[in-house]
Design goal:
- The complex is a heterodimer of chains A (about 130) and B (about 375).
- Chain A is about 20% helix and about 30% strand.
- Chain A has helices spanning about 30-35, 85, 90-95, 120-130, and strands at about 10, 15-20, 25-30, 40-45, 50, 55-65, 65-70, 75-80, 100-105.
- Chain A has a single domain, classed as RNA polymerase II/Efflux pump adaptor protein, barrel-sandwich hybrid domain (OB fold (Dihydrolipoamide Acetyltransferase, E2P), Beta Barrel).
- Chain A is an alpha+beta fold and about 130 residues long.
- In chain A, the strands form 2 sheets. A 6-stranded antiparallel β-sheet of chain A has the order 1-2-3-9-8-5. A 3-stranded antiparallel β-sheet of chain A has the order 4-6-7.
- The longest helix of chain A has 11 residues, at about 120-130.
- Chain A is globular.
- In chain B, helix 2 (about 50-60) crosses helix 8 (about 240-245) and helix 5 packs across helix 7.
- In chain B, the strands form 5 sheets. Chain B has a 6-stranded mixed β-sheet with strand order 11-12-13-10-4-14. Chain B has a 6-stranded antiparallel barrel with strand order 15-18-17-16-19-20. In chain B, strands 6-7-8-5-9 form a 5-stranded antiparallel β-sheet, with helices on one face.
- Among the domains of chain B are: about 10-65 and about 160-245, Probable tRNA modification gtpase trme, domain 1 (Gyrase A, domain 2, 2-Layer Sandwich); about 295-380, Elongation Factor Tu (Ef-tu), domain 3, CATH 2.40.30.110.
- The chains are: A alpha+beta (about 130), B alpha+beta (about 375).
- Chains A and B meet through strand 4, strand 6 and strand 7 of A and loops of B.
Chain lengths: ~130, ~375
Amino acid sequence: MSKTPNDLRYTRSHEWARRETDGSITVGITDHAQGLLGDMVFVELPKVGAKVEAGKECGVVESVKAASDVYAPIAGEILAVNTAVSDTPESVNQDAYAAWMFRIKPRNAADVDALLDAKAYEALVAAEQH
Amino acid sequence: MRKKNNPPIKPCKDKTMGHRTPLYDKHVESGAKMVDFGGWDMPIHYGSQIEEHHQVRRDAGMFDVSHMVVSDLKGESVRDFLKLLVANNVDKLKTKGRALYTCMLNSKGGVIDDLIVYYMDDAWFRIVSNAATHDKDLAWMSAAAKEFGGVTVSERPELAMIAVQGPNAREKVYAALGENLRESAGKLKPFHSVTIGELMIATTGYTGEDGFEIILPAKAAVFTWQMLAEVGVKPIGLGARDTLRLEAGMNLYGSDMDETTTPLESGLTWTVAFEPKERKFIGRDVLEKQQAAGVPRQLLGLVLEDKGVLRNHMKVFSPQGEGEITSGSFSPTLNQSIALARLPAGVATGQRVEVDVRGKRLAARVVKYPFVRNGKSCLES
C-alpha cells in the first residue's frame, strides 16, 4: 500500500506539496506515483528562478518504463531544486516524500490550501484503481 | 504527473479478463504487479525491475513464460513442410534436440512472427512462438499445413514453460531439479535441447545469459517453481525480461519487426537461409528482390550520449535521412539509455545521430549490438 502523509497537500496529477515555515512550498511526486512508474532512472528539474504556472509542466521523471511530466501544483517562482534527486533518481523510489524536487515561492500563499488533502487524494487514487 | 508515452503493457483493470498461467497464484503471492500482456495476466515486476535485471546478469532468475505458444507439428513430411514455412532452413537441424531461431514470413516477405523450431524426431518438430500473435500464427500454420498435406499442427496448452537464466542458472537447476540433469543437460551447447521424462530442457533464452528454458506439464509448474525458489532462483518479471533482451540485442516482435517489415530490414538477415537456392520458402522472392535492389532500411543500435531515456517511436535524424526507434529503454547494466532503431541504408556504426527526445534533439552514437553479453558490456569505449 502506498503512503499518504496527512500533513501534505496533493494534486490530481500526483504531486505532493508541503508548506514550509518560511511560506515556500516544497514539491515532489507521491509514493503512489513512484509505485506506478517503477524504477526511476532520470529526473529533470526546473531552473532556479523560473516562473511556473499551476498545472503546467516544470520537470520530468523517467522510469525504466515511461516518462512523465511533473506539474507545478501552484503558480510562483522556483526558489531551489534538489540536485541530489537528479543525481540519484532511485531516491524517489526509496522515499518519495524525502526526495523533494523543487521549492516554489507562491504567487498567492493561499493557493496551496486549494489542493487536495490526504483523504481526498487517497479517494482519487482508489477511484483510479477501479 | 501524467504518463506521456503509454507502454505497450497495460495494467489489468479487470482481474477476471486475462488468461492465467499455472503460476498466476505464485506471482500474486510473491507480490508481483500483474499486467495484461497479449491477453494474459503476467507479472511485470515483483518490486524492482532493475534489481531483477541485475539478478539475472549476476546470479540466476526465473521467468514464467507459460504464455508462449507451444505447437507440435507432426507427419512424415514435416521437415519438408518447415523448409517452406520458415525463412531459416531446418536442414541445419541435423541431430535431435537441436533448435533454430527463425522468422515465419507472409508472401510479401513481412514477418508474421519470430519463433524457435526444435527438431524432436523425424516426424515431429516443436515450435515455440509468441503469445500476442497466437491466433494469426495458428491460423497461418494450419492453413499452410492443410495446403501442404500430411502435416498436423497441434497446440499444447497443457504445457507450461519456465526460463532459468543467468551465470549460475545451470548449477541452480541441477540443485533444484536433480543432479542427474547435469549428465544430460550439462553438456548442451546453446540452441540444443534434451527431453528427460516429461521435461524438455533447452539451452535457449531471451537474456544474453547462459541458462535453460524448461517446457514441462502445467501441473508440475508450481512444484518446479518452488524448488527453484528454494535454491535461491528469484522470480523475474516481464519488465526486466524486456531490458535484458534489449541489452542482448534480441528483437521483440511487434516492436522491432512486424508484417510491414522484412527480416532484412530488421537486423535478422542472419536468420534467412538463401542457400540452397531451390528452397522456395514463403516470402523468398520478395526478399531476393529487396536484396537485389538494395535494402532501404536497417536495424542498428543506439547509445544515448546525453541524459534522458530513448523510447519506442522516437524520431532519429541522420545525414542519410530520418529513422525511428523500435525499442528504446534504459540499460541497467550500462547505466545509460540504449535503443534499437530502424535507420536508412548508409548509416554506419560509430556515426552520431540526433534523436527527438520529447521535443529536444539529443545526441546518440550508432553502435553494433548486442550491447551486453554474459554480463559484460560489448561497447567499444
